[in-house]
Amino acid sequence: MLLFVVATLALIFMPAIGHHTRMDPMISCQNNLKLIGLSFDVYAGDNNGKYPAYSDKTSNQERAAAQESLPTIYRLLSFSISSPKYLYCPSDVRTGASTFEGMQLSNLSYFASLTAARTLSNAVLCGDRNITLDGFQIRTGRCELFATTYLSWTKDMHSKSSRFECGNLLLSDGSVYACKTNASYLVSNQHLLTNILLVP
């Protein structure tokens, strides 16, 4: 009889347990950004406090490439990111690269800042690629984030996790914010007149 009761309870609760074992893509995305933030911090610790685009220890060629190429920035961080799978969000329609060497813009889900610094703890460092600035969706390339910019997201990512247009932001201090509708309050507090972003 006891065995029957245990088996019946197991049948009732197993679907609920199985449902909760899958991680919400929004949470997985935030974990990816935390790992990226830690990688930037480790890199800066080894390179006189500077991130890849402005490191004194990288060659002039690598530094110039990092200032123009988001894959180059992430390749320079690859020593502390174990796999390129952490550079794309599970709710993104894109697919990740299998190797750092073969990584293209189309394999990345996160933009990165060229001007954020370790000493500017409130600076926007990375975030979901589906951003809009002052209502305009940003496509691949370089863009400028001003202190007065209205930053929000499209529904290209995380639309299943939330009914809002939302996204995640990583600041230079390693904190990750899940933002619904807009993140202008974070942008205005970053202590940078202009933050240059590379968007995949």
Attribute tags:
200 residues, alpha+beta, 9 strands
What is the element layout, followed by pairings?
Elements (H helix, E strand, L loop, with lengths): L1 H20 L3 H22 L13 H9 L1 H7 L33 E4 L10 E5 L2 E3 L2 E2 L3 E6 L4 E3 L12 E6 L4 E5 L3 H5 L5 E6 L1
Antiparallel strand pairs: 1-2, 1-9, 2-7, 3-4, 3-6, 5-9, 7-8
Helix pairs in contact: 3-4
Compute the number of helices.
Answer: 5
Beta-strand residue fraction = 15-25%
What is the percent of helical residues? 25-40%
Radius of gyration based on Cα positions: 19 Å
Structural class designation: alpha+beta
What string, H for helix and E for strand, traces the elements in order? HHHHEEEEEEEEHE
Regions with pLDDT < 50 over 5+ consecutive residues? Answer: none
The shape is globular
Number of strands: 9
Please describe the biggest sheet, giving its number of strands, its sense, and whether it closes into a barrel: 6 strands, antiparallel
User: How many separate domains make up the residues?
Assistant: 1
* Lateral arrangement of strands in the main beta sheet: 5-9-1-2-7-8
Distance between the termini: 60 Å
Mean pLDDT: 83
